Amino acid sequence: MSIQDKLAQLTQVWGLEQMVGMGMPHPKDMASLGVGSMLYVSSMSDKNAYQKIAVENTKCGIPMLYGTDVVHGYRTAFPLPLGMACSWDPEILEQAQHVAAKEARADGITWTFYPNADIARDARWGRVGETMGEDPYLASRLIAAEIKGFQGNNLSNEESIAACLKHFVGYGACVGGRDYEQVNLSESELRNTYYPSFSAGIQQGAESVMTAYMDLNSEPLTASRYQLKEVLRGEMGFDRLIVTDAGTIGNLVVQGNAKDGVDAAERAMSATVNMDMGSYQYFQNLPKLLELGKVSMGQLDEAVRPILMTKFKLGLFENPYSEPGKSEKLAEDPASHALARKAAQNSIVLLKNKDSILPLDEQTSGKVAVIGYLADSQIDCGAATVVGVPAYAVTPLQGLKERLGVDRVLYAPGPFAERTIPNFVSEFIADFGLEKRKLQSWAEQTDSINEAVKTAEQADVILTFLGESAEMSGEASSRSDLSLPGRQQELLEKLTDTGKPVILVLIGGRPLAVTWAQEHVNAILMAWQPGREGGHAIADILFGDVNPSAHLAMTFPRSAGQCPQYYATTLTHQPASQQKQPFSRYWNELSSPLYPFGYGMSYSTFGYGNLLLSKNKISCGENLTVSVEVTNTSNRDGSEVVQLYLHQRWGSDTRPIRELKGFKKVFILAGETKIITFCIGPKEMSYYSTTKQSYVQDATIFDVWVGGDSMAELKGEFEVIA
User: Fold this and answer.
1) pLDDT tens digits, one per residue of 452-510
2) Which among 67, 311, 543, 710 could disulfide-bond with 111, CB atoms 3.0 to 4.6 Å apart, if both were Cys?
3) Burial of 47 (C-beta count, 10 Å sphere; 0-12/13-18/19+)
């Protein structure tokens, strides 16, 4: 390979012809240079055509990687990742990502920029919905399952694609929840909270890692030798492909880190970044760096090697092309649709159920008013999975009409809720034909509210679908206010004034501060963006075909002013007062969340008892077993997520008041008691100590709780001796 050939392999280019008019080179021209990868090429004919140029019309004939964001499905849309995380079921996530990988690979995609291993503790941040939530233990278990689903046991298998852990590291801790904003994290926070999910993905065999956009402790991640070379490569043992996020090598100049593009390319190369996503800085500037001796041929070869290895593992040298129409046929598979429905059923969280109003009786519930535009929008239910790839979703309105018949379902869309400030993505997304809503004037919104109330008054029960449209969450979509957007709160209050039972179904991509609703409506379901079968799954739960079993993977705050809010805080100032309820550090708000991490209701009820520890005292390095009896105290079979939390009373550093260290989702028959066991070992009891600047296991006493959420009350203790 010539130097030019190697530089081309380090380059990932935009494959969207729409971007040619924005100053980007045409994909055909870049393919003829033998570039390493293209992203966002939608058309199968284009993929095969560009690949043919790379394979048959260049000297080396090296096939390209085709990459895109396969996040919650490809053609078959699954629930938003944060919703999937609420299943607390690694097996479902693995199965869903296997379906996504199979459909994507059949469409020529060999590389997904997912899973998102960021820890999300601030609901204002727009990308919380892409994550596995706030807890490193839960996220680690689920991220590993997703990697297994994408990659399988053999990347050359036609049902596998290369996964990419992103965004290394700390991206979810942006200041103020503002996307791309700087991040300031201590070594303790990084090692105890933000590294573990990446480490778990690497141990599972993740083929690539993406660097984050932002500065971490005043250092851009793409130029960080410490984070990438010492921690990721050195400590975590990652020897595969590191790719930047879009344009981040060029952004080193904008961020005030690099003097110019030459300096930026040198910094990224020194940090062991392999592939430049879309900024062309390697391709343009590495020749000069090689000439000056600031980058060696050895460095260049080391940068190229993982890219070629990924292509060999994927079998692209033997089979670089894809069969037209195959992906579309796979999307018609009833088994995939059934899995999407099961995933949605397991992701919908029951947050309130006053007087057990749910499940509704299909025979006696009478006429049902379905209120809210989110009840009849495929895009807002999560049908937009991949840019340029059409997907389908059963809307809640459609699911309810299929269930009850058209005559029993009354519908009014109510007021639309729009972004008040458009972001830079808006025009770009519009080019792909996603549905657009007509902006409503204040008078039109008032009319739509009145019409919705009038419709609701004709029904026996009101199902109102409120929350966020899809464009309100995602990249560059942070929010300073977590209440229902637009005039939806006004609509909700007028619906409750009718005196009819009101069941609120929340649609959206982040936790919402529905404090008023918690006090005034009869029931609340958090359905997230539920995917292809969301409408069916919601009806299944509303009418009792399915007993809800999801538990929150992220805390719901009472207001945006509480953010960032998460359960695993330390006992700091006046800890004794924290044992009294209610307590608060605010003069106008409780400190406690609206719904805690791990919370979720069921149509069944569960009791916990007889907590037993195999030992009351162990030595450092030893294990112990914790067992608990869980009884289904209702007359309905159901599933419960049994959660184990630890707290270290004293040690080298202060430790969080509780940390999740085990969970099991178990199905329990009505009246049945099951004994659930957990093993606690050195891994669960160790942490990174700032004081000792190393990972330690202290001699101390641990409190252990087991229950159905992070506020579990059943408690034991054990001692660890040196």
Assistant:
1) 999 999 999 999 999 999 999 999 999 999 999 999 999 999 999 999 999 999 999 99
2) 67
3) buried
Q: Do 55 and 63 form a contact (C-beta atoms < 8 A)?
A: yes
Residue-range definition of the domain harbouring residue 477: 336-548
Task: For residues 643 and 685, state if they share a domain.
Answer: yes
- Domain endpoint, select from 548, 567, 582: 548
Please list the alpha-helical segments (H only) found in 476-558: 488-496, 515-520, 534-542
Q: Show Cβ contacts of residue 147 under 8 Å, excluding neighbours closer than 6 positions.
A: 115, 163, 165, 201, 204, 205, 206
Q: Which helix (H) or strand (E) holds 199?
A: helix 196-203
The answer on 618 and 526 residing in a single domain is no
Q: The sheet that has 523-528: what strands, in order across it? A: 349-353, 523-528, 502-507, 461-467, 368-371, 409-412
Task: Say how far apart CA 288 and CA 294 lie, in whole Å.
Answer: 9
Residues 508-558 have pLDDT tens digits of 999 999 999 999 999 999 999 999 999 999 999 999 999 999 999 999 999
Residues 540 and 622 in one domain: no
Which pLDDT score is estimated for 369?
Answer: 99
* Percent of the chain topping pLDDT 70: 94
Asked whether residue 190 is assigned to any structural domain, the reply reads: no
The pLDDT value recorded for residue 431 is 46
> In 70-124, which ranges are continuous DSSP H helix?
81-85, 90-106
Residues annotated as catalytic (active site), given as ranges: 245
Cα–Cα distances (Å) from 511 to 468, 547, 552, in that order, read 10, 22, 9
**640: domain CATH number?**
2.60.40.10
Q: How is residue 548 written in tokens? A: 């809800």
pLDDT band at residue 583 under the 50/70/90 scheme: low
Rounded CA-CA distance 288/50 in Å is 29
Residues 340 and 480 occupy one common structural domain: yes
340 and 302 share one domain? no
Distance CA 716, CA 306 (A): 49
pLDDT higher than 60, residue 425:
no
Strand boundaries in 409-460, DSSP class E? 409-412
Rounded to an integer, what distance in angstroms lies between the CA atom of residue 179 and that of residue 412? 34
**Whether 252 and 370 share a structural domain:** no
Total of domains in the chain: 3
For residues 615 and 652, state if they share a domain: yes
Boundary (domain end) residue, out of 503, 525, 548: 548
pLDDT at 192 over 70: yes
Euclidean distance between CA atoms 162 and 113, whole angstroms: 9
User: Tokens standing for 633?
Assistant: 């105290």
**Does a cis peptide bond (omega within 30 degrees of 0) precede residue 26?**
no
Looking at the DSSP bridge assignments, the partners of residue 674 are 630
Those residues whose C-beta lies under 8 Å from the C-beta of residue 28, and which sit 6 or more positions away, are: 49, 50, 53
Same domain, 399 and 502: yes
Domain CATH code at residue 459: 3.40.50.1700
User: Is residue 98 in some structural domain?
Assistant: no
Q: Is the peptide bond before 582 cis (omega within 30 degrees of 0)?
A: yes
Cβ 3 vs Cβ 287: under 8 Å:
yes
